[in-house]
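Please describe the entry underneath.
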Amino acid sequence: MSLIKLTLPDGKALQVEKGSTVLQAIEKIGTRLAQAALSASLDGKLVDLSTKLEKDASFKVHTFATIEGKETYWHSTSHLMAYAIQELFPGVKFGTGPAIEEGFYYDVDCSKSFTPEDLIKIEEKMKELAKQNFPVKRIEMRRGEAIKFFDKRNDHYKVEILSELDEDMVSLYEEGKFIDLCTGPHVSSTGKIVAVKLLNISGSYWRGDAKNKQLQRIYGISFPTQKELDEYLKLREEREQRDHRRIGKEMKIFTFNEDVGMGLPLWLPNGEQLFHTLQEYMRREEEMAGYHYVRTPVISKGKMYERTGHIPYYAESMYAPIEIEGENYYLRPMNCPHHHAIFSELVQSYKQLPYRIAEAGSVYRYELSGTMNGIIRTRGFTQNDAHTYVTMNQVADEVVRVLEMNMRIYEKVGLKNYWFRLSLPDFEGHPEKYSGNVERWEAAANELRKAAQRIGKDFIETKDEAAFYGPKIDIQSKNIRGKEETIATVQLDIMVPKRVGLNYTDENDKPAIPVVIHRAILGSYERFIAFLLEQTMGKFPTWLSPIQVKVLPLSEKFREYGEKVWMEMRKNGIRAELDSTDQTLNYRIRNAQLEKVPYMVIVGEKEAEAKTVSIRTREGKQENGMPLEKFISDILNEIKNKE
């Protein structure tokens, strides 16, 4: 039998017989690797261990230690879960059930509303099916045959998916009595799945469209060992303590209401105060840095977005147009077109450059229901937005100014654990996503690269992450689930200025086109506040805290003195609240701690007689008998210095 050559990641060659399986090839590398293997890649394509080897190829093995291995394992577990549900709830139908960044889910159409008790039953059934160690078999058939197969089972979800495919051949996977449409790969048998935990249930519209039926989405996680699952569940519990949704509720920062709509947060008084304090701070910093604040409308003619290129490149993220007197208007998805109009009105000469425009601008973007996450990703949000109009020679200096401003502000508000990413286009893989010529893109990218190098902070470069109009520097961080998120961006726009006719008169008295630097130091206020809540657990520095002091009289008898203390603080601009409810002191202290109030001022008989206060910090430190004037002076200094 003829031999074929498999090239391993380290460049070494592995000779195997043509027609042998992927698993047999892995066994030649090592028995332990074969036991741990879940799938493999042939020339970059993911395949099952049962796949037959027919030609020379690059070869990579995936265990649970790799991203691809985890995806294989978790996707296989979603099928096992669907099998268990099918056994327990006959007649159920399934939407899609992919692996996700951590674990898996399956969308289920069932007349019964699942309960936490049902999840326990499903888990037990999954373990039972796993122990039976059913082989997982790949079945290939013509698309038409697959449509007939699922149509016969009254499975309209799979029929709909199949009807939209272009491929002539499709694949199904079978384990025991369960068969599902899937591209794979999957683990070789159900016995590979050892430790499983179903986590929660949520609603999800079929295909993410609110016009379709709402299904029940069951989330889960699985691991090859119980020890790994236990460690994950402990980590998950710690993350839940840091979840901005949980902390935001405890601190009364924001809420959501079904009648208002998904992804549209309602800011409660504490949240509005936090929002306002951040906005005031940013406005002062930006005006000191030479930015001109403006205010622009949240709705504009469609012609504006056609000229800028947003409609052809960004239409899927925009809300449907509103027809007014025969013309289409859109809720704005970004502020830049309005700022360009202001530049055209105010700037004529190169002597006015750089020209900086800033706005706390509300924007609206259509996000699928399954992608939204508290206030990290919403459908309506306010950007800390600015646009600077420069010559290409001014780009590096201006970007350095912006990045240094970013770092200074993040230090003041207590944001840590972030990094810079230079986001570049991928003209080879996805040229349709980017407008303009390669040379101009490279020149712009080099200016950003120079700026990033000058600030002396490490950065990574990533292809296919640029905006359609230019490269950018993204400031990245991870949320509590380990998912990478973009906090802020510094983007170069080398295309739109020409498209919309922006120009100025250069030093030779000739018309020239500016480069636009799009910049949002906080990104959106919503997302930034979410990151602050998770990183600080709501323990903001005093200057930023929505409530800086809670005044707690020991009893009703000392309410009058408590009111005097409270009013004196309010007169001095301190955000103080009086809690003189009938609850016990310990209960009121606990409430203040849940709201992460930096200082609790406790007043009783001694304090009222001596005109002093007793101070308790949110960390639990206590100081008794402090003169009220000294406490006010100390906290005002702390606020002024943003400590």
Remarks:
- The first helix runs from residue 22 to 29.
- The domain at 549-640 is CATH 3.40.50.800 (Rossmann fold).
